[in-house]
Fold this sequence. Notes:
The chain has one domain: ABC transporter involved in vitamin B12 uptake, BtuC (Orthogonal Bundle), CATH 1.10.3470. The protein is mainly alpha-helical and 386 residues long. The relative contact order is 0.15. It has a two-stranded antiparallel sheet. Strands 2-3 form a two-stranded antiparallel ribbon. A hairpin with a 2-residue loop joins strand 2 (215-218) and strand 3 (221-224). It is built from 14 helices and four strands. Mean pLDDT is 85; it is low at 1-15 and 381-386.
Amino acid sequence: MLGAVGGFAHGPHAEEGEPRSAAVTTTRVLAVRLRWYERVPWRRVVLVVLGVAIVAVVVVGTMKTLGLPEAQRYTGQNWINFVARGISQGAILAMIAIGYSLVYGILKMINFAHGEVFMAGAFSSLFFADAYARSGFLDRHPVAATLICVAVAVAASVLTAILLERLAYRPLRSAPRLVPLIAAVGASLFLQNAFRGFFGPQPRGYPRPQVLGGQLSILGVPFQRMQVLVFVVAALSIVALTFLVTRTKTGRSMRAVAEDREIASLMGIDVDRTIVVTFAIGGVFAGIAGVLYAMTFEQVQFTMGFRPGIAAFTAAVLGGIGSISGAALGGLLIGLLLNVGPALFLTGFGIPSPFSLRDAFVFLVLVLVLVFRPGGLLGTGEPEKV
């Protein structure tokens, strides 16, 4: 009887203990799983999967393109033309990207109005180029006429860049970074609509000397003369800028201000003057690039700074924004990607107009660089804390 009673008393405790122990065990298992999930480097896993998918698409698309029947395949001359156009366009993008990199290196801000600085130079030189073409001076004296057009474009771009710095950016220099960024976007829209109001929305033809037409053979490979000129001018300009930044007093001042503005000011460097010089140098490159771009495509328009500006910004980010060599490398890579990528990667998939997607390549590259290597190819690879 007592045993029965004892057994009866023991039973409910056992029944109550079993659910409690099961709940504790379940909680411990969930905690262990949660800790395991937290330890998994999910960002790295996603990046690896995304990278593998992109490489697979590129490899498959390239193999399909190169494996097309001979009647549908691009010829060797087609590929040479793609590469030549890519290098030429990349050289122009590199010169525009240098303006982004210089300003970012000094002020740590993105001057989204730099595309309009480029546009202002090209538009200003149009009137001289058009007048010289009508009078015949452009073809009789192509070197002098082109140099005058470049000088006018450089003056207009430099003036626009300096006014942007003085009126739009200097009052906001100590503001949070988002404020100058919004001001840059507003300045870009203002300049676009101002030129539209003054000169109309329609594209205008930009004449170029007849001597720059036709082809030039280099090592047996034909190139457009305009493409060769663009590459040579861009290369010489970048070399000159590198010498200026590394070998002159102005360049040392720019590097000091980029490192620390307050310390540079205490060392006797005129910070405001150095910043103005930086914007002016960016304007010089934008003006030269504007004339080269206008002569290459033989037209100007009030929106002509938007797409090259976005592509140049992507080139600056790709190469490592703040780096002159990074901007040059990024510009060449973006130019090649825009002109070779659609034909090489998309033709094999049967896409009817692959070159209509070239702008998508620019934004895709921008996103991938920001995801995989925020510092760019020649940068630190670490995202900057804001």
